[in-house]
Specification:
Helices cover 9% and strands 53% of the residues. It has 1 helix and 9 strands; from the N terminus they run βββββββββα.
């Protein structure tokens, strides 16, 4: 039996990045948005989500990338649910990283 669990934490030295490590079976996210970039790596099972007018599905090893302020949802696309690791990155942290070393 797979147990739903999640861990969420912030990384101060990561420019305000937030991280989520979760396993969901029955959990479903309603439509919402984030003020950050979302990079998620599916590690088990499969997730489906609505994004930019279409339904998408990802399985183990696949990566989801969502832009800030974009409406999306998420739920299991497999009977066993899904596990994933998610990085929530503030736009300014990415901009700072992209500009590093340009001097």
């Amino acid at each position: 039996m797979i147990v739903e669990e999640k861990r969420f934490w912030r990384v101060p030295e990561g420019g305000g990045a937030e991280l989520l490590d979760a396993t969901f079976v029955d959990h479903a996210y309603g439509r919402h948005s984030h003020d950050r970039y979302v990079l998620a790596v599916i590690t088990r099972g499969a997730e489906q989500w609505y994004y930019r007018g279409s339904r998408h599905v990802a399985g183990p090893g696949q990566i989801l990338i969502l832009n800030p302020d974009e409406i999306h949802d998420g739920c299991a696309a497999a009977e066993e649910g899904w596990s994933y690791r998610v990085f929530y990155l503030p736009p300014e942290a990415l901009a700072d990283a992209a500009g590093a070393g340009r001097d």
